[in-house]
Write a structure and sequence with these properties.
It is a single chain. With 159 residues, the protein is α+β, with helices and mostly antiparallel strands. It has a single domain, classed as Aminopeptidase (3-Layer(aba) Sandwich). It is built from 5 helices and 7 strands. A 7-stranded mixed beta sheet has the order 1-2-3-4-5-7-6, with helices on both faces. A hairpin with a 4-residue loop joins strand 6 and strand 7. The longest helix has 12 residues. The chain is globular.
């Protein structure tokens, strides 16, 4: 799927170097909240995500904007439920990239229901989910490594 600028393609191992750099951004890490204990551990990052690329239950796509890697989006399963996750490089925030990419992704990944979780104060990500038809159905609390605290997260669902 594509429009003039935003395109998705299957993630390649070489994309992981870009994704690793994106998640080192302190502000982005804070907003994502539920991140690895040590986001600077490159070896652990690559080990984890290389396994994901080989897992048939995970659909990972790379988000391209004018052929530049702008982020990632994926469907994974958690306790039997399909969940969505995405990460956009901060250079592309506020331009509708995440919303466009998620809309495209939902045409590729048509399993429903599908859930999204977002930190209570990540308003940008909440708007992305809502623009794509997700409805807030509840809340949960969990330990957010990026904040070193337990925080509330909102649970969204698309049916």
């Amino acid at each position: 799927m594509q429009d003039k600028q935003v395109k998705l393609r299957q993630t390649q191992k070489s994309d992981l170097a870009f994704f690793f750099q994106f998640q080192l951004d302190k502000e982005a890490n804070y907003l994502a909240a539920f991140t690895p204990k040590d986001p600077t551990d490159k070896e652990a990052y690559f080990e984890k995500f290389e396994k994901f690329l080989n897992d048939q239950t995970i659909n990972t796509q790379t988000i391209l904007v004018n052929e530049t890697i702008a982020g990632s989006i994926a469907k994974f399963e958690l306790e039997g439920d399909a969940e969505i996750t995405y990460w956009i490089d901060r250079n592309f925030w506020g331009k509708g990239i995440a919303t466009t990419a998620l809309k495209y992704f939902l045409t590729i990944e048509n399993i429903r229901p599908i859930f999204g979780r977002v930190a209570f104060d990540n308003f940008g990500s909440q708007k992305v989910l809502e623009k794509c038809g997700f409805i807030k159905i509840g809340t949960d609390k969990g330990f957010a490594n990026a904040r070193q605290a337990e925080i509330e997260e909102f649970i969204y669902k698309l049916t």
